[in-house]
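Predicting structure from sequence has reshaped protein science. With that in mind, we have picked out one protein's residues alongside their backbone shape tokens:
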Amino acid sequence: MGCDRNCGLIAGAVIGAVLAVFGGILMPVGDMLIEKTIEKEAVLEDGTIAFENWVKAGTEIYRQFWIFDVQNPQEVVMNSSKIKLKQRGPYTYRVRYLAKENITQDPENHTVSFLQPNEAFFVPSMSVGTENDTLTVINLAVAAAPHLYPNAFVQVLLNSLIKKSKSALFQRRTVREFLWGYKDPFLSLVPYPIDTTVGLFYPYNDTADGVYKVFNGKDNISKVAIIDTYKGKKTLSYWSSYCDLVNGTDGASFPPFIDKSRELQFFSSDICRSVYAVFGGEIDLKGIPVFRFVLPPKAFASPVQNPDNHCFCTEKIISKNCTLYGILDISKCKEGKPVYISLPHFLHASPEISIPIEGLHPNEEEHKTYLDVEPITGFTLQFAKRLQVNLLVKPAKKIEALKNLKHEYIVPILWLNETATIGDEKAEMFRNKVTGKVHLLRLVEMILLSVGVVMFVAFMISYCACRSKKVK
């Protein structure tokens, strides 16, 4: 009888030990299985989950605009007063809903090239008004004239055309005209052939961004979706040194198995440069654990604060010898037009930039840029890319519309939020195919290990207790 009991206790301990060992072995084996599956499905080629969602965004992407309506145009023109702004918006458009075009695989170099067609579709239900809403906005052609034509004699000629067309520094335009283009009366009088259509994002519809060439991950999954060339080049020709390199992905996805310590690099053609995001926290997105990566203030810092940014400072006067921070001169990328990029409402920018402006209220939560990335697959499941477009306006003695200005203004024109969140149906599919299976495997591993260890310890204690009684 004693032998049966002792044998049973030993058998129980052995079973517990086997379960614990099996649970322990399952951990690296399970991780290896997950890794192999992800590596297979993350490759950008026909038949994979990644390719299906990459060709055409499976999530609806929106671009929301808040346009700054100028409240005191006459005071600014006559007295060089502070510019009083009131933001109007959002005016929302659905974008990037067309499938990528000209997709070409290059098996030898393990890359795939494509064009991203541009199309914006107005969404009234997500907007505060219609595209016909009229606002007081800066006259893009008049403000840019002295930058594009600094010669005094040419400015005298331009001034006569500006006056003849009854143009001024500020104008009334509809949302549609201001964003997507209108025939400018001043440019229509210029005696030589030029494109007389002006718009902040003109031309956009029926155009395409690219050609992009990205690594497909076939030979090395750690390079998947990383841009090899943009428009046939590895550099942009806008900046000097390493600032000119095209780095990272387009932000829609990243190589899998993301670590919190990693910087996620991505290229944005909107701001003509590559930027990076750093880990900001873990959140639950529709039952899927994701890492939130945030664009840090350091990305737009001055070279004084961040020496790595020295090659993004292209001029010394406006930037006060490269000491101002939070704004980026992208005029080289915009055919010489004096366009500056910042975060909305000059978030994280030098306070003095907003001194001649009234009506700005920077808010970290509302105006920051972030990406919510599922760490196992590297897929971006939610993002908000927020930036502000500003125009440098400076005095010009030969142009009447600008001659009374006493100083330069970096005028906020609008800010935008390009955003998307994985839909409920896609989230359920993602949970079932990816995170659900991973969690189930982890649960089985923990149960086997925990039950095995508890059984082994309990049965061994019982066995030792019985042996002790027998000896006594």
Q: What stands out?
A: Residues 212 and 230 are 5 Å apart (CA to CA). The radius of gyration is 30 Å. Helices lie at 2-41, 49-55, 73-79, 140-148, 152-164, 175-180, 364-367, 424-471. The mean pLDDT is 88.
